[in-house]
Structures are given as structure tokens and as C-alpha cells.
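Re-running the complex after MR caught last week's input typo. The corrected sequence lines follow. Everything else is unchanged.
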Amino acid sequence: MIPAAFDYIRAGSAEEAISLIGQHGDDAKLLAGGHSLLPLMKLRLAQPAVLIDIARIPDLSYIRDAGDHIAIGALTRHMDVEKSPILAEHVPLLAHAAGHVGDPQVRHRGTIGGSIAHSDSASDLPATTLALGATYVAQGPNGTREIAAADFFQGFLQTALAEDELLTEIRVPKMHGAGWSFQKFNRRAQDWAIVGVAAWRRGTESGVGLVNMGSTPILATSVATAIASGASVADAAELAAAESDPQSDLNATPEYRVHLAKVLVRRALETASA
Amino acid sequence: MQIRVTVNGTAHDSDVEPRTLLVHYVREVLGLTGTNIGCDTSSCGACSLHLDGEAVKSCTILAAQADGCEVTTIEGMAAADGSLHPMQQAFMENHALQCGYCTPGMVMAATSLLQENPHPTEEEVRLGLEGNLCRCTGYHNIVQAVLAAAGGH
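Corrected-run output:
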């Protein structure tokens, strides 16, 4: 219930945050909304010596129409992603998925950047932005770079972010009227997904992201390839778990997760294809 | 570290450890024990209060993160003359509590919900209170109370 002791520093700018991470290295963790990190610290599964609070850095919370994509500041809260009229119009799958993260109290604090940087494979937004072909913008001491979502998630809670980089923006391509569906399978309200599917389809193009089917969010490329080559939804859905490595836990065996993934991908694609 | 938090309209200057949770700050430093602790996993919502007007789980927030902010706890909901907030009144009239342990969190979450969605459907109330668990009531009368507070169903 009570975290181990730590030093607390509030960063006033992205540059200051980057400098502080550089200074403290492994001893430090960034704090945005804190709704992934603080629960771990309360269970003492994480015990950083230093917390760098970035939540008040100005100008990192925004949702902007940038032409071919929507640019979302990393500190944008889930509630704001959920309620955004710009996203409702241009990326409805993301707005909808954000409304499924946790519960309203969590969505008042948690941020899209925090969720993606933390990269829990059971979280909703990493898989959803992965399915949408997002690009993540990272800022480091030597400038900024763009990282494709497909290259970003590298292992359990491990991302392509360098130790001294800050995730500053998420760029999500506009969906241009594509059909979509978000399937979050759980037994109780506010539970994590036992398995989740974020899917979109426009003609032969599609994108399918899987929640909680491996140590990272999974891009179901075999499903998209099958759809592109004219396979039926049912046949494509049989390939749902081709890239997955589902884990066993209190909620499900790997075999049950594979079964769930096929059923949920089929349901999602049926809705997205309608 | 020094923090200044305005709670129920009163500014408090305090020296706290960085790891002090906001729920422990309001309960143990300020003595406002209406906000309850019900779980270890940010699930139950018994610790819900308003931070700058929005319902949040105070067990998952550091007091340091509330520095310079306004907090409203259940103690701050009734009017100065003691008359109940309409949500509290609705909970009372609709038998929306039994043991009462979840109730402060429910009231704070429900008032935040109605601020954002003044006329929710029953389904929207149930979804809007997803962050609050009740072991006694089965939620039915809680939902009725929130709908009543919203002006009828």
C-alpha cells in the first residue's frame, strides 16, 4: 500500500525532464498520470529512487488535425482522447478504445503517452495505436525522432525509447471512414482485457491489434494479409493468433486465449466489414 | 517536501514525504476520514474524491501531485448550514447504502459523472460508476439514486 521512499522532482519542460533522466539513469522513473506506475510502486514491484513528475510540462496535452493524421500530445488524458470531437470524426476506433481504459476516475488521470511508454501488453491503447499504424515521436538530448508503432514494442514493458528519451507525441493516421470495432473481453467491469482486439477495415485494407496475447501488443499481420488477398472474415480470423505468444495466468490458459482471439477477431472484422 | 493543497475550501501548507498518498494525506494529516481505503489495487473507488473538480482515486495519487490543486472530499459536499448535497439526499431517499463504506466514493464519482453528463441513461450511470465497487447493495438503489439526482428517470 505504501511505496518505498523516493525523491520527487517536478520537471518544467521536456528538455529538463530529459536532462534529469540522463542524470539519474536507471534510478529514475517518469511520472505522468501515474496510474500504471503508482499501482506497481504501492505493491513495491517498482521501487525507483527518483520520480520525475512530467505531468505539468506545458504544451504536451493536445489533439490536433495535422492533415493526414491526428497529432496527440503524450500528456493527453484518456478522458480527453475519449471525448475528442476531432478523434470521433477522424479516428473513432481510438476514441472508443480510450473510453474502455480502466474507469472514469482512471481516465481523469492516465495519459496516452504514459500508457504507450509503459507498454503493458494488456493495455488497450498500445494495441489500438499499433493496429492504426501510429507513429510515436520521441525527444532526446540530441533532438526528436519518429518511431513506427510496429518497431516500438520490443519486449515485456520494453520499448524502443532510449533511456534518456521522452515520448512527446502520438501521430495516428486518419481512418477516412473505415469500418472498425473494439472487442474487450473481460468478466467484470473495469477489468483488464483477458484478450482484446482493435480492428479496422476499408475494402481490402485492414489493421488488427491484439491485447494481452503476448509480452507485447501484437499486430496480427497474417489476418491483414489474408483480408488483402480476398479471404473471408472467418478464414482470416483463424489466423488471429499466428503472431501471438499468449501467456497463462489466473484468467486464461494460452489455449483459451488463442480461442478467444479467433472469436474476437472474427466478430471485430464482421463489424468492421459491415 | 512542502505542498499547499486547498481542501474543501481551506488551504493547507504541509510537509510530507514524497511517497505520501493523497488518501493518507487527507485522512491522516488532515483528519478527514470520510474518504475510505478499500483495496490495494486502484479498483474499488472508496477513496474517490474530487481533484480540481473531477473524481479521481486518491489512493493512486501522491499528495505531491495535488500541490497547488483544489480537493473536495465527502466532508465538503454538504452545504455550510449542514443541508445535504442533492446527491447525498438522493442516496438517503433511495436507500442507496447499507454499510456505507463505498458511499463517500460513490457520491464523489456520481457527482463528477453528472457534471460531465447531466442527464445520463441508466446504462450510462452504470458505466459511469464502473470505478466504484459495492459489496452490499447490488448497485440497484445506487443507480436509482443517481438517476433521481439527475432529475428523474
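None of the earlier attempt is carried over here. The mean pLDDT of chain A is 97. The CA atoms of residues 204 and 230 of chain A lie 7 Å apart.
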